[in-house]
Structure formats: C-alpha cells, structure tokens
Design a protein that fits this description.
By secondary structure, the protein is mainly α. The chain is built from 11 helices and 2 strands. It has one domain: Peroxidase, domain 1 (Orthogonal Bundle), CATH 1.10.520.40. Helix content is 64%, strand content 2%. The chain is globular.
C-alpha cells in the first residue's frame, strides 16, 4: 500500500467524517496543537505505526495540516490554488514555494483554507512527508495547471550540470 493510500485511509477514518463528534474533536485538537501536543494523540501514533514513521517533528507537521482538510477530492492542493482562476495570487504562491521550516506550516495552512479546505488528501500527505525540491517543482507545474515534464534522460541532465 502506498504512503498516500495509508494517509488517506487514516484521514478518512480519523478526521474525514465531520458528522462524527470524535472526528471533529480530534481535528480541532490537532489544528490548535503544538508539535508535542499533536504527538499526545493515540490516533497520531496509529498513523506513525502504519507509515513506520519515527520522526516526531515530521509526524506532527503532517497531522496538524491534515486536520485542516475537510473534504477529499481529486485535485492536488497546488492545482486547487492556481489554474485559470487562481484563489491564491502568484506572489503568495511564490512565497509559499520559498517558505522555510518556520514559515512553512502557517503558509500551507493558509493555502488549505484558500482551497476551501478541499484537496487530494493522499497526495497532500505524501507531499508533506517528502517536502523538498522535487515536490516544490511539481507544485509549480500543478499551480499553473500543466503536467510536469518527464524526468530528464541522463544525457540531458549531464549537459545541464556542465
């Protein structure tokens, strides 16, 4: 099972049913939680075990942002933010792509809110766990509504690096 599928399953079970008082309560606690408080939730450890994730900071980062999402849909978050009629300005999106560790959680929280708290939870979760240059590049293509190019062949990569 893929990382995204595990995250989506956990989100659907623990946070996705907003008719459930337990899901609403957990989501509210995680949204307000600091990193340590988020780790004090049993459901968070269930996710960590399913993912075999032992990095507490990364786990807290993931679940606090997943708690912001209220509806799972097919569009990745960056695509929901951009496209022909963007809900996030280009300038704000560029700041999101440059955000570092301290600014990143709040910038992503605002992005989720701008997207009406709706996006592809599996993709978002996987992207949050693997946040780095590759994910940021893909988000840039998603924001502008274009498919990312295939990975460069070794000969092209070598020419670029020379």
């Amino acid at each position: 099972m893929s990382v995204g599928a595990i995250i989506l399953g956990w989100w659907a079970r623990e946070l996705g049913d907003r008719q459930s008082a337990a899901a609403r309560g957990l989501a509210a606690r995680l949204r307000r939680a600091g990193p340590v408080d988020a780790l004090a939730e049993r459901a968070v450890h269930d996710l960590a075990q399913a993912l075999n994730l032992r990095d507490g900071a990364r786990l807290a980062f993931l679940v606090r942002l997943l708690a912001e999402v209220r509806e799972h849909e097919g569009r990745p978050l960056a695509r929901a933010l951009g496209g022909a009629e963007p809900v996030m300005s280009e300038l704000r999106f560029q700041r999101l792509m440059r955000a570092d560790g301290g600014e990143l959680p709040e910038a992503l929280r605002r992005a989720i809110t701008l997207a009406d708290r709706s996006c592809n939870v599996a993709r978002l979760g996987s992207d949050l766990l693997h946040w780095g240059e590759d994910v940021r590049r893909r988000w840039c293509f998603d924001y502008y509504g274009v498919d990312a190019p295939q990975a460069a062949t070794p000969s092209v990569s070598e020419e670029i690096s020379e």
